[in-house]
Amino acid sequence: MATNGNGAIPSLSLLLLLFSFFFSLPSPCSATATKPSALVEQPPVLLKYHNGPLLKGNITLDLIWYGQFSSSQRSIIVDFLNSLSSASTPSVSSWWHTTDKYHYRRGGSSDVVVGKQILDVNCSLGKALKAFQLGALTSKAGQGNGGGVIHVVLTSADVAVDEFCESSCGTHGSGRVKNHRSVYAWVGNSVSQCPGYCAWPFHQPLYGPQTPPLVAPNGDVGVDGMVINLATVLAGTVTNPFNNGYFQGSAEAPLEAVSACTGIFGKGAYPGYPGEVLVDKTTGASYNGVGVNGRKYLLPAMWDPQTSTCKTPM
């Protein structure tokens, strides 16, 4: 199965560039110093449409849990996915339906529902996966359905994947199985491998300003980090499913709907600072979106094609 890789966050070199920008700014000498974001105006993000098909309509998410996940960890992620079509304020669903604006020329929306869930607890392909094996795992969930199914592979904390923690926290890709087009996404739990890279801002960053991490809204740094990256790759999957939809840069390493807005979670964000978000008065957890079962999540900004700006949930 052929694949095209799209990182959940930009490459490590891009992150280093962002942090080097931060350090090149004048150092504040007091607590009242002007924030760096007010000193330098960033160039606007512009994703180009490359005339390819997008995913819209009713989309089923089939989940392949690869490795050991507790029932609590699975429920955090399943509740997040179910929240994409719920109605709360500030809403996980309203964040997701920013993807509808990518269809504004032809109408339509991307409505998702969780389908089958497969538990591969014993790691049938081993605990060191090559990139092509991610696509192979989707065969466990059956064939694609003309773009109406996204196979989502979720790997546990003790599973290594090619380029995981080096240049990617997750990917999405496509291919064909017999005569069926298949689309898949993958995200891994980084808590024991690179939380400073793939679970920021719930862990101190691997590079850059060592500011205190935010408290994870569901009490699990690795899984709450997975939610951020899952949100990123799913948005990329529906707006650039076959590598000819919306993106910026090269098709081999594109910036997509969310990865083009990396590191932005609230108003006033700049490299090393996620921005202004809500804080739960009881737990101290940070969040910007509310979903089903009272869940709270921290969601990354998504590029809005109608305003050409990075839009946060609040």
Automatic annotation (TrEMBL):
Designated name of the protein: Protein EXORDIUM-like 2
PANTHER family named in the record: PROTEIN EXORDIUM-LIKE 2 (PTHR31279:SF78), PROTEIN EXORDIUM-LIKE 5 (PTHR31279)
Highest rank taxon of the organism: Eukaryota
Subcellular location: Secreted, Extracellular space, Apoplast
Keywords: Apoplast, Secreted, Signal
Organism (species): Hibiscus sabdariffa
Signal peptide range: 1-31
Family note: Belongs to the EXORDIUM family.
Pfam families in UniProt: Phi_1
